[in-house]
Amino acid sequence: MIGARFTCNICGTPGVFDPPDDWREGASCAGCGSSVRMRSIVHCLLSGLLGQSCVLEKMPRKRLIGAGLSDWEGYASRLAKAFDYTNTFYHQAPRFDICAPGPERLGLYDFLISSDVFEHTPAPASRAFDGAFESLRPGGLLVMTVPFGWQEETIEHYPDLGDFTVVELGGDYALVSRDTDGKFVLYENPVFHGGPGTTLEMREFSLDGLMAELEAAGFTEITLHADAVPEWGIFPRNRYGVPVTARKPAGALDRLKFKVRKARPS
Ligand SMILES: [Zn+2]
């Protein structure tokens, strides 16, 4: 596998894959700096939407509506040229809280991308999966990654977390929360992704737990993409954190429309 030739499916640059120490995150395209994670996501997205994979940079524009949740700029800028795509954020405009999408987003999207976000949403985890399901139109595609473990069930670090703040004392970090029962609670040794005090890890998914959440939200065609795709430089060393795709069934009722119909006088 060392020294395998590939074409980056994001920017189209040809390269030779020299496995970085961190196969999932290490930059391995000389053109755009994409990692295996980024190229896998784009491969799963284009295969799922177009029926075949291609180079994002060179594809003809398609009139499909999509959104990313804090997507990597390297593919977000190219997705915006290829589709009616918006990269969205939790803390800045354009804002999109996947746990509470709002009526304007119900049934809107042909596709949603969420890479390493769902481990950071507040408990219960199901709110984010429900939000993704509600935001997709029937037949819409979810492409997601989360870090996951092989334990039986997802480990929820803070099931009762309410409003909280991160405190630092002598180089150590802790969370102070007014938990959902109203009591102040101190949580020691929080895990942050992207450096101390940044994005808090709320849970450690298990693979089974992740699949169960997707199924419970109503998704079908739930698929784990762990195979290598050498031509696009996708060389997962194992199944850890590889993309999962899932679809909202074509016949699924949009909850808002359902409510409107029920509210109409007969
Ligand atoms: Zn590239």
Structural features, described:
- This protein is an alpha/beta fold and 266 residues long.
- The chain folds into two domains: 217 residues, Vaccinia Virus protein VP39 (Rossmann fold); 42 residues, no CATH class.
- It has five helices and 16 strands.
- Strands 4-3-5-6-16-15 form a six-stranded mixed sheet, sandwiched between helices. Strands 7-14-8 form a three-stranded mixed sheet.
- Helix 3 packs across helix 4.
- The chain is globular and about 55 Å long.
- The N and C termini lie far apart (66 Å).
- The structure holds zinc ion.
- The site of zinc ion has 8 residues, from loops.
Hetero groups bound? zinc ion
Class of secondary structure makeup: alpha/beta
Largest sheet: 6 strands, mixed
How many extended strands? 16
Please list the strands of the largest sheet in the order they lie side by side.
4-3-5-6-16-15
Instruction: List the total number of helices.
Output: 5
CATH class type of the largest domain:
Alpha Beta
Order of helices and strands: EEHEHEEHEEEEEEEEEHEEH
Provide the CATH architecture of the largest domain. 3-Layer(aba) Sandwich
Number of domains: 2
The fraction of residues in strands falls at: 25-35%
Average pLDDT: 92
Helix content: 10-25%
CATH homologous superfamily assignment of the largest domain: Vaccinia Virus protein VP39
- CATH names the topology of the largest domain as Rossmann fold
- The backbone outline, from C-alpha atoms, is globular
